[in-house]
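Hey,
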Amino acid sequence: MKLIVRKSQPSGTVFVPGSKSHTIRAVFMASLAKGESKIISPLISDDAFSAANTCRMLGAEIEMREENIQGKNSAVWYVRGVGNNPRLPEDVIDVGNSGTTLRFALPVAALIEEGCSIFTGDSQIRRRPLGPLVQSMNDLGAQAFFAKGNGCAPVIVKGVLKGGNTSLDSVTSQFLSSLLITCPILQNDTNINVTRLNEVPYVEMTLWWLRKLGIEIENNNFKTLFIPGKQSYSPFECCIPGDFSSATFFIVQAAISGSSFTLKNLDMTDPQGDKRVIEILNQMGAEVVFSHDGITVTGTGKLKAMEIDMNDIPDALPAMAVAGCFAEGETRLVNVPQARMKETDRIHVMKTELSKMGADIVELNDGLIIKKSKLKGCPVNGHGDHRVVMALAVAALNAEGETIIDTAEAMSVTFPEFTDIMTKCGAVMELVEKGDELK
């Protein structure tokens, strides 16, 4: 599909949907519990469904309902877990576009004693690296290898994961989080020596969940972690908080346009790393007010450039690259080389597509340098990356003329309601089938 966007200035109040990261962690931990868990207000998106379907194929029973919660209709997922005995999948598991699902599922599949589990995904997933995680799994007793020998899916996994010692290069936080989720239920203790860790807040979120569910882990400043074995997950009930990563697009839109958005369903005490975007844009000149109504971000028309270490918040890079186009001076987004290993090489893609719109932008090995630019609408490519599509939509709302963004269907991965919410707030944008924009 294509997203057609014209310059406009949306504003208003937005109820931010549930966090993808929290939803997927909740689904996996509920699936490893023995008994029924209740997940309230999970994110309804392709990635969340990929996680649920994967856990079903590994033996969990998941019933998706809609219930009245405190006077409001809400999605509720009931998950009956398998404990530490997942089932051998009857078919190849296709995780779609969900890298988190793939990485979390591999160690779970390595608990299965008989047979092999095979994992694959879409074309983007089949380019995303898995080598360090698979090596650590093999160190801990599994037998896992790559069907094409290239360090990427398809992956074939055979058990049994037992525990022991391993060193892990966690170039993405998902490698470490996946081991932290599964290793507590192994027969033996596990020691992980972490040689590198990017995106620390995502691991802190995993540890937050583990503490919440009574799992014990000794963390030596993320250098080494000791995970006692023979633990177990108990069933739980939780409500998924709003997603700061999705909120980022509204925050940036307000900051660069002079409009105002009030964002509901966000908790600043939550471990999500992308909450830092609010602080960053406040430092750059946007006005931020916290109240019982939500978090209100208002653009002042005086955004100032700054250097931003993005290592903890790589998902915010596309949106912050757009913000840099409207800030006086030189914005530097640095220390985020792992952004090249997301759904796309987001550093290169954002440089390429914003340049088409007239941005003064330079690509670094680990980030971007952006100077204030006057953007003009034109055809751009979202490269099938949900965050790139939405970031380009924000750029288009502030560019002269009309912008047509290709592969806009990718938004359904994490935020299928993005276009509807923006248009209700006054944005001039429309999703159309390919070819319809010419009619």
